[in-house]
Amino acid sequence: MSTILLVEDEPDLVLGLTDSLEFAGYLVLSVGTVSAAQTLLQKQLPDLCIVDVMLPDRSGLEFCTELRKKNASIPILILTAKSQEQDKLKGFAVGADDYVTKPFSVAELLARVGALLRRSVVVVSDAPKLFSIGDSMIDGNALAIRQKREEHPITLHEYKLLEFLYVRANHAVSRDDILDAAWGTEAFPTPRTIDNFIVRLRKKIEPDPQNPKHILTIYGIGYKLVL
Ligand code: CA
Questions:
Q1: Which is nearest to 2 in space by CA: 77, 79, 104?
Q2: How many angstroms separate the alpha carbon of residue 26 from the centre of ligand 1?
Q3: What are residue 133's DSSP bridge partners?
Q4: Is pLDDT of 16 > 80?
Q5: Half-sphere exposure of residue 35, counting CA atoms within 13 Å on the CB side?
Q6: For a Cys-Cys bond, which of 8, 80, 212, 215 suits 52, CB 3.0-4.6 Å?
């Protein structure tokens, strides 16, 4: 049974989330402040943390920074407010793995929690970097995409691009975010380069590259990965 630390101060949300998470089979530890969360962490390390950004004593983002210094692998999901959209970017900067924006549906939150826990099993043990998209297994060590009957080599940048999309599955990501993540400052490709990479990856992953069902184009934004 996975243990989830919920750091949230809105009583109704705490009750609702605790109920839903317990019903889904998780053990829930809930605290309403950063200091209570830190005290708890000294005694026990949960399998995943759900952290609200706006907490009464300090910012949930500061808590994430400190948690990341202690533990590089524990999955962190942050809860951001609609009016604080930039918090999700700050969240990724301090080591959060995913976010949901309030108000969110319990089903969405549970899906993200499940995905993060499945992923952490793979990611925690530094290698192998393995994850699946549809019928394809992505292998970050061998730099290959495998299906039942085929194997396609991928470049490091293609892998990084896929990994970036995978970590944010079901969220639209902009071409600029992809550029930062997969290329950083080492080179200067244009957003058009991303489009070319996507075309190539679709040929390797999509059963029908002309009608993609995994790597979707989100007009005006960029792309979205559907697993
Ligand atoms: Ca709050």
A1: 77
A2: 22
A3: 136
A4: yes
A5: 3
A6: 8
Residue 147 corresponds to which tokens in the numbers above? 């299906």
Question: How far is the C-alpha of 7 from the C-alpha of 71, rounded, in Å?
Answer: 17
Kindly give the distance from the C-alpha atom of residue 10 to the centroid of ligand 1, in angstroms, as a whole number.
6
DSSP lists the bridge partners of residue 153 as: 144
State residue 109's pLDDT score. 93
Q: pLDDT tens-digit profile of 27-44?
A: 999 999 999 999 998 888
Tokens of 143: 């730099």
Distance 7 CA to ligand 1 centre (A): 9
- Residue 159 C-alpha to ligand 1 middle, in angstroms? 36
Find tokens 């089903």 and name the residue: 107
Give the per-residue SS3 of 72-129: CCCCEEEEEEHHHCHHHHHHHHCCCCEEEEECCCHHHHHHHHHHHHHHHHHHHCCCCC
Cα 55 to middle of ligand 1, angstroms: 5
Q: How far is the CA of 180 from the centre of ligand 1 (A)?
A: 30
